[in-house]
């Protein structure tokens, strides 16, 4: 999956924490995990990605957020 750019997993009844391994998807530009039951915090491996847009909302314990780290 080295060329995966967009990963849309919203509305899939996912639960648990967001896997840090998603940060290993080097070409990933958009990660949509909205409308699931995820918990915990965003892994550093995702927060450190300067070109990644992450979409979250109503995530249980994960705060709602839509951000693009490209300003960094």
TrEMBL record:
UniProt keyword annotations, A-Z: Glycoprotein, Leucine-rich repeat, Membrane, Receptor, Repeat, Signal, Transmembrane, Transmembrane helix
Gene Ontology CC terms, in alphabetical order: membrane
One Pfam family, short name: LRR_4
Cited InterPro entries: Leu-rich_rpt_4, LRR_dom_sf
Intracellular or extracellular location(s): Membrane
Protein's membrane topology: Single-pass membrane protein
Protein name: Uncharacterized protein
């Amino acid at each position: 999956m080295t060329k995966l750019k967009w990963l849309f997993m919203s509305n899939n009844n996912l639960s648990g924490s967001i896997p840090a391994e998603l940060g290993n998807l080097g070409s990933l530009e958009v990660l949509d995990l909205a409308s699931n039951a995820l918990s915990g915090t965003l892994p550093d491996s995702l927060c450190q990605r300067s070109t990644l847009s992450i979409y979250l909302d109503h995530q249980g314990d994960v705060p709602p957020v839509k951000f693009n780290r490209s300003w960094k």
